[in-house]
Write a structure and sequence with these properties.
The complex is a heterodimer of chains A (about 240) and B (about 210). Chain A has one domain: Aldolase class I (TIM Barrel), CATH 3.20.20.70. Chain A is an alpha/beta fold and about 240 residues long. Chain A is built from eleven helices and 14 strands. Chain A has an eight-stranded parallel β-barrel, surrounded by seven helices. Chain A is globular, with a radius of gyration of 16 Å. In chain A, strand 12 and strand 13 form a beta hairpin. Chain B has about 210 residues and is α/β, with parallel strands linked by helices. Chain B has one domain: Rossmann fold (3-Layer(aba) Sandwich). Chain B contains six helices and 13 strands. In chain B, the strands form three sheets. An eight-stranded mixed beta sheet of chain B has the order 2-1-3-4-13-12-11-8, with helices on both faces. In chain B, strands 5-6-10 form a three-stranded mixed beta sheet, with no helix packed on it. Chain B has a two-stranded antiparallel sheet with strand order 7-9. Chain B starts with a strand and ends with a helix. The model of chain B has no long low-confidence stretch (mean pLDDT about 95). Classes of the chains: A alpha/beta (about 240), B alpha/beta (about 210). At the A-B interface, helix 4 of A face helix 1, strand 7, strand 9 and helix 6 of B.
Chain lengths: ~240, ~210
Amino acid sequence: MDLYPAIDLRGGKVVQLTQGDFDRERIHGDDPVAVARAFVDAGAQWIHTVDLDAARTGEPLNRRLIAAIAGSVDVPVQAGGGVRSLEDAAELADAGVARVVMGTAAMESPELVEAIAARQPVALGLDVRGREVAVKGWQEGSGTDIADALRRLENVGASAVVVTQIAVEGLMGGPDLEGLAEVLRSTSLDVIASGGVGSLDDLIALDDLVVDGRHLAGAIVGTAIYEGRVPVDEAIRSLAGNPA
Amino acid sequence: MTLIAVLDYGIGNLRSAQKALEHVGADARLTADPALIRDAAGVVLPGVGALGRCMQALRAAGLDAITEEVIDAGVPFLGICVGMQMLFERSEESPDERGLGILPGAVRRLPDGVKRPQMQWNLLERRGDPPLLAQAPDPAWAYFVHSYSADTEDELVTSTCDYGGPVVASVGRGNLWATQFHPEKSGRTGLAVLRAFVDAAEEGRA
């Protein structure tokens, strides 16, 4: 399982939200490129970025910073938040982003994912509150059950699905292993878990999760890294089959 | 500083390759200028996306002939990803578009039963002791994103990775090196590959 240290951007700053709530924000600096470089120097093999402003409003206010990160590190960078058109996706690819993450747009238009996936790698980004998929930067529910969404989006050409458990996001109280097990059962796509990791043990629990012989492909960790509970270098050493 | 020409033929993102080469101490230039390319100590051919589109763009930029020229002249040359695939005779991805045919063999779709693309970090298994990986850590992990892979003569293969069986990860013949993985996104292994390439260019051999 790969570790994806998270760099969430809002107003040009590196932040972490609690449960996706824009009013519960902690700021972790204003030099995202330096943060990304530090993660890579510690051994990270991926960087996961989110443009929170774009996720909420569609305005890609932090895109230049994401491009700067992608151009500055020698590992693949994944980028989500406000990827809602061919042009958005192409701009990120041109900036060196390895994979775009599509959430709201994927729910609204599987055809768009298909069109983008024909040109560049795409991951689905399904953010769930309970079992319901949330959209628009988690501000709204979609009324769609996660398993239904996964079935509908199984064959649109995405290479992975990032599943974020909103209820546990930013709280470091442990991931929703049961929910993730069900996601593994519901899709053949690579599954990247996001939300809830608060310790190395939580990360190892994700690494150890097996359903029908399948493991999680990755875990996105934000808050626990910034709070010093999960040092990137130790985390990578503790995961199986990793470029440590 | 060692001048490395990164062939610029109008396809997406070449800056990552350029920056990574700069990172290992090269004077890396994105260029389509034949004079600059002939002047360079080493030449890099990156490539992303569909092979047919890359081939067309390479021809349209007039860089197919100079690619053959510098390889024939013994200049250290590095093909990356689709830039490696284009060196072969043909590809199942674009049956109507001929490859450069500098290396024998074809590029074939990854077998059924594995996910396409392979988009992940994977472990390189060396064949022999390729100069490409002389400075790479052991184990050497590299980042791959591809749906097609080379099918070529065994003696050209310098490393493989396991993806539903052995998949060609790099090839080499004299001054010509090529990788299916992305050295510019492969962390320590990738930088070691690029450093070995720049060293070879500096020494005027590969």
